[in-house]
Amino acid sequence: MNPAHDQVRAIVWCEDALELLDQRQLPGALVYQRLTTAAEVAQAIGDMVVRGAPAIGITAAYGVVLAARARYAESAPNWQALIATDLAMLAAARPTAVNLFWALRRMARVIAAGCSHPAQRLLAEARAIHVEDIAANQRMGELGAALLTERGSVLTHCNTGSLATGGYGTALGVIRYGYAAGLIERVYADETRPWLQGARLTAWELVQDGIPVTLLADAAAAALMRQGEVRWAMVGADRIAANGDVANKIGTYHLAVAARYHGVRLMVVAPITTVDMSIASGADIPIEQRAAEELLTLGGQPIAAAGAQVWNPSFDVTPAALVDALVTDRGVVLAPDAVKMARLMAGTT
Ligand code: MRU
């Protein structure tokens, strides 16, 4: 890995508090919020101070550390019972990214095991989750870049970089690795309405790293593909069902349909922690609906006709049949389906 191509850390544990880079203020200002309670952490996840499936999971894990410290101080004999409320509050912060629930389950196992210094033990677990995520991203970067058979440009959607993960990124990790290996010439980044994760965050990360980036309106993606400018569309995932269906940022499905029509291949890059084998297909993935204001206003200013109704799903589901390659830290699955997903999860790919 070229360390120059990975400069940002959005989640930092610092002197008994959690510091989150406030992604709502990027790229205008680089401001870290200092959080000291689980309630603040849950609020920060819901308000998108931190976002991106793996980053949400890591943040929640650190939130459990803050909760344990407070509950143990409140009542050392009862802290395990008291902390259940905090776990439930953190779990309710956002519904789609399964990494949140995965991380909370892992922390809950440590809580159930019990120990005399729970905050320290839980901090070690949260740190392990964080470090493992960065390692998974680096592994996926290598595996995904190995699928790039010729030098060219790629298209990406939303933000899947260091800001969305523990560091390095999922799809953006493949892009970082591919660029360092000379396999990627340019990155086309969808602006990603309505939160503009592409325009504000992906473009910012790529500019920081000196990787050439061209922004486009989401609606321009099909026209770009028609021009033959890109060979791969690369995206992350918030939850992958047992049959390989992929929930990701709204607009991914439309990108996948356009990609198949134009012969552009779709690569989904996600750690194993994003796979939810308890969900048979994408139809059962809970899709977060967000506030109407996200579409009715921009930068606090009204931009829509007063009285218009809003449909604002934050994610959509891309059927597995439209996915050419699923890159995980456990291996690559070409044309995923239920049988291949079961093999991947059993470690027999
Ligand atoms: O609403 P967001 O910004 O949390 O959505 C993020 C995405 O959809 C990402 O593509 C996904 O979490 C994968 S990030 C590694």
Description:
By secondary structure, this protein is an alpha/beta fold. The protein has helices spanning 38-46, 53-74, 79-91, 98-113, 118-145, 171-180, 197-209, 221-226, 252-262, 293-296, 338-346; strands at 11-14, 17-21, 32-35, 152-156, 184-190, 213-216, 230-235, 239-241, 246-249, 265-269, 275-276, 297-298, 301-302, 315-318, 325-328, 331-334. The strands form four sheets. It has a seven-stranded mixed β-sheet with strand order 6-5-4-7-10-15-16, with helices on both faces. The protein has a four-stranded mixed β-sheet with strand order 11-8-9-14, covered by helices on one side. It has a three-stranded antiparallel β-sheet with strand order 1-2-3, covered by helices on one side. It has two domains: 3-136, translation initiation factor eif-2b, domain 1 (Four Helix Bundle (Hemerythrin (Met), subunit A)), CATH 1.20.120.420; 140-346, 3-Layer(aba) Sandwich (Rossmann fold), CATH 3.40.50.10470. The model has no long low-confidence stretch (mean pLDDT 96). The longest helix has 28 residues, at 118-145. Helix 5 packs across helix 6. The chain has eleven helices and 16 strands. 5-S-methyl-1-O-phosphono-5-thio-D-ribulose binds at residues 51-54, 97, 158, 160, 164-165, 170, 197, 236-238, 248-249, 314.
